[in-house]
Design brief:
single chain, 209 residues, 4-stranded parallel beta sheet, 38% helix, 24% strand, globular
Amino acid sequence: ISMAALLEAQDLHASYGGPAILKGISFTVGEGGITTVLGANGAGKTTLLRAICGMCQRRGRVQFAGQAIENKATEDVVRLGVAHVPDGRGTFLHLTTEENLRLGAYTRHRDKTGIAHDLERVFGYFPKLKERRKQQAGTLSGGEQQMLAISRGLMLRPKLMLLDEPSFGLAPLIVQDIFRIMRAINQQDKVSILLVEQNAELALDLADT
């Protein structure tokens, strides 16, 4: 069954002001699907995700849910329903787990009931975070910080999650657990996923395309 395209890029070029890092990239992410981008360090995988979000210089055509987003600011892309979970986890280390999660819902700060519901939903996926909700994020293990980064992205109620190397630096059992939960998020919450990954075996097992 072919899926309708949620995200579509055509002839995408990206740079940080110097030579182009991405040249003429075209791809689609199906609505409700999981698409994987594989490649070694330095291949431009992280730049691809940043280009979608407007975090670097770009040209080409990028459409999300039928809207052109190649000229939109990062915050406007986020408001459309794109959650970017960067490599290095990107958590605010001095804040508690729960404060980090609430920051993830900053675009919906008036929706107190919905935010409370979504907190319980992510704690259902990641029970360890519930145990550590009052703990400073900087004292969490690497695996817990990755769970927190994914959960913070979920607090946006995204249509699409961009995941940058979620397995990096983590023990294999923790990685398997995180990938299992990502599949559940995809299937139960109907969140599409664009996954950048070096671990080809795990990534291809998770992906539709």
